[in-house]
Amino acid sequence: MTGKLLAIILLVSAVAAGAGMYYLQVYGFYYDVAAKPGEDVMLLAEGAEDPQPISYSAFQAIDADSSPIRYRACFETDLKAEDFSTFQREKDPEPLTAPGWFDCYDAVAIADALKSGQAQAFMGTKNIHYGVDRIVVVTNDGKGYVWHALNNCGEKAYDGTVVGEECPPRPEN
After folding, report:
1. pTM given for the model
2. Is residue 123 within 8 Å of residue 42, measured between CB atoms?
């Protein structure tokens, strides 16, 4: 009888731990981000140091303090394709997935739109966190998406490779 009881306790504990980890990864760490007009959706012009804001509406965003690359956002803009000609394009962007409950953001659909030419990717803000850039994608019908991606310095810093002199010094915590 003691063996069965011990097995049941272990099984219940494993299921509870698994359910807790799932909840924390998919729901627990995320929070809604309030819109900050003039700060949320910004694009970097060719040769510029600082990004400039663009007009947008219907902004939704989520973030988590557990990782600098968990930020995801959706918006709409009335700007046309020619309005984006002066902004720095992002080469080979890879949209990161979002939790399934964040309905406006679909990484597969964004990637397909980028491949088909129905969307264009731009540099939003460089080093929004150390080694992390903000990528902004705008589709031909005015839908926009934002995520954070590791840049070259971030990839090196987080995989243990020697960062080198081309990267800025990492801020002290």
Report:
1. 0.82
2. no
